[in-house]
Design a protein that fits this description.
The protein is α/β, with parallel strands linked by helices and 310 residues long. Helix content is 32%, strand content 18%. The protein contains nine helices and twelve strands. A seven-stranded parallel beta sheet has the order 8-7-6-9-10-11-12, with helices on both faces. α1 (13-23) crosses α9 (280-296) and α3 (91-109) packs across α5. The longest helix has 19 residues, at 91-109. It is elongated and about 65 Å long. The two termini are 27 Å apart. 38% of the residues are buried. Bound molecules: oxalic acid (OXD). The site of oxalic acid (OXD) has 5 residues, from loops. The site of oxalic acid has 5 residues, from loops.
Length: 310
């Protein structure tokens, strides 16, 4: 069966093809743009595909994204109607994202940056951490990633709060939802973690108004998408000291331009979109399974609801 593989930005045919073939030697993988006869393509495995390129395959039965976020696919103005889209849900990726969040929560909580600066100046200053039990860590987005991070950070003794689009009742997390719930949620967060999907409703959710709703001296950690943040608003809040620090793994354009103020801002930590990734050895089995199911007309795993945006 012919499968189109079309990658850009950090995923490569030569890394994925051996793993896909090992799992199903009958797969006839066609590396974009050498896909042969368009009518032979029955499945597409993509990461940041070229817009307009997926609507030329009359027998396409599934579009499999090799990552978790599908906003790039859904923004294709010529996306073929009716072809199901799947995304990755992977325990290694989920665990890696939680590691990243724990790392930065603890770093801020234990005042590591100040400690390192003190050492450089040979200063011995006792820096007490706040009480974790009364420090609220808030998570925007209570999906696969948000829930795992909430459970693991909560296990360290922090008070957890979470915000989602629709109402969720969860043990160990004070939950808020919808537009009305956003401000009361933000009001309590010493640290705000963003793990939302990027959709028209969540774009620019971290803006002047929502940053102002965070307590003085709060921190922002974004592992989701650059489009969630209004950069000028975050820089202004950092400059004023209202936001004490931001750790950003994602940006609207990656890498950010050389003159992007984030690079040199003393309160900003940039990481190169490496909080969590999908690796062929972990993720190829669910892609191959979905291709098999799509061809047989069976129910797919991790299907994206187009109208919801994830
Ligand atoms: C993803 C990502 O969406 O790595 O999987 O950003």
């Amino acid at each position: 069966m012919a499968v189109l593989v079309q990658f850009s930005d950090g995923h490569f045919f030569d890394d994925w093809a051996p793993m896909l073939r090992a799992l199903d030697p009958t797969l006839d993988l066609r590396n974009w743009p050498d896909f042969g006869k368009a009518e032979e393509i029955e499945a597409a495995v993509v990461w940041r595909h070229v817009y307009g390129s997926l609507n030329q395959f009359p027998n396409l039965k599934v579009i499999c994204n090799v990552g978790a976020g599908v906003e790039h696919i859904l923004a294709d103005p010529e996306l073929p109607d009716g072809v199901p889209i799947t995304r990755v849900i992977d325990p290694r990726m989920t665990g890696a994202m939680s590691e990243y969040m724990i790392l930065h929560v603890l770093r801020y909580h234990r005042r590591l940056d100040e400690t390192v600066r003190n050492q450089a100046a040979k200063v011995w200053e006792y820096l007490a951490p706040d009480n974790a039990a009364t420090t609220t860590i808030g998570i925007l987005g209570l999906g696969e990633l948000g829930l795992d991070a909430a459970a693991k950070i909560g296990a360290l003794g922090f008070r957890m709060a979470g915000w989602s689009r629709t109402k969720k009742t969860l043990p160990g997390i004070e939950t808020f939802h919808g537009t009305a719930g956003l401000k009361p949620f933000l009001n309590q967060c010493k640290m705000l973690i963003c793990l939302l999907p990027l959709t028209p409703e969540t774009a620019s959710i971290i803006n002047a108004e929502t940053l102002a709703a965070l307590p003085q001296g709060a921190y922002v950690i974004n592992g989701a998408r650059g489009g969630h943040v209004v950069d000028a608003d975050l820089i202004a809040a950092l400059d004023s000291g209202h936001i004490a620090g931001a750790t950003l793994d994602v940006f609207p354009i990656e890498p950010p331009a050389q003159d992007d103020p984030y690079w040199t801002h003393p309160r900003v930590t940039i990481t190169p979109h490496n909080a969590a990734d999908s690796f062929p050895e972990d993720v190829a089995p669910q892609l191959v399974e979905n291709i098999r199911r799509a061809v047989l007309g069976e129910e797919l795993l991790n299907v994206v609801m187009r109208d919801r945006g994830y």
